[in-house]
Structure formats: C-alpha cells, structure tokens
Amino acid sequence: MTQGYIFFVVFMFLWIAPIVAGVIIAKKKNRSPHWFWFGIWPGVGFWVFIIMLFLKPLKICDECERKIPADSVRCPYCSKETNYEINEEAQVKASKEKKKAIIITVAIVVLALAVFAGIMIYAVGSTFKNSEPYKHSIELIESNSEIKEYLGEDYKRFGIITGSFHFNGDGSGDAYFSYKLKGRNGISVVYVDAEEENGIWNYSKINFYKKERTREVINLLEE
Q: Residues 206, 137: contact at Cβ < 8 Å?
C-alpha cells in the first residue's frame, strides 16, 4: 500500500465519516440533515457534526405539525399543550444525553488528533527513509563488518526518526537526523549530518554509537 493511497483513505474517512454519522443523529433528533451539505468543504462536516451533537432534539406538534423542542410543554406556534411532563426522570435523561454528547465529542477529537499525529509521523518517517542520506548511512552500516557483528543479522530500526530534512527542489538541501537500531546488544544510535549542493550530497557526519549516551562511536566517514 503506497503512502499516497493511505493518505487518501484516511482523508476520505475523516471527511465522510462525520457527515454520515451526523445525518443519522440529525434524523434521530428530527433535525434537518441538509446542514451537512456544508460538508462538501473538507473539515466543515466535522464541526457541523459536533454542533449537531449538542443541539436539543425536536418533536412534531400534533396540532400545527411544526417542529418544536422536545421538552416543550406548550407549542410556541399554536399554543397547544404537549404531553411532555417535567419530572426528575426527564431531567436525568437530559443530563445523560448531554454527558454522552461531551464524551463522544472528546473521543472524536482525540481520535482525529491521534490519526493526524500518526499521519505526520508516517509522512516524516517516509521522507527520511526515502532520502539519499538515510539510504547511504544504511549502506555504510551494512558494509561495516564490526557493526554487523555487533548488531547481528536480525537488527531493525527502532522508534521514530528525529531531526530535520529540507529539499529546495533546485539540487540543494540539508539533512540532520538520528535514528535507532535494535540489535543483539541492545539499542544503538546513528547520527547523520549532510548538505546537498548541485544535486550531490556532502556528508560531515555519519556516526554510529553502539549504545545510547555513550562515547563508544564508529565514524563511518572514516571507513
């Protein structure tokens, strides 16, 4: 599955899901689902959905057949009394509905932020992994017998890649980042510092630290 396809699927889910859920809630509350036409603009449907959660439900007046608040004792249009009774049970139910709306809202916001953070981490990681400096550092590690012996055959990248990577599109750029490798002797750290000029990467640092926060380092540029 390509990165672009994943972005498309997540984007469509975050765009369409609030609209579908909102229309369902609107119909249950006797509210007009037409507000969700605003959802044709990405992101707007989400906020309309949040607003719909907090709107009070409506009911149909038996006399004039207009929509009125579900807790109305008398129709504001024709003054006909309704069968709604203000009692403790109704107040408890209304309070529960409000709490439920708040919980759903918080859950959706947290989920949206988590998905967004996941997309950003994936995108940043993919940018680094597809860059020439990252690939070059891996090539040097693979060709270093001491490091290969230290890591073992089944080593893998651990955690996220941190740092910065800039590509200007005119054959220039710079990269400064670090990543961790987990092998038979624990977690090692690789630091890369490079600058691109005229389409060629020049490296000032590719260091392999056998363990975190130690001075035991292998300078791969000297190999």
A: yes
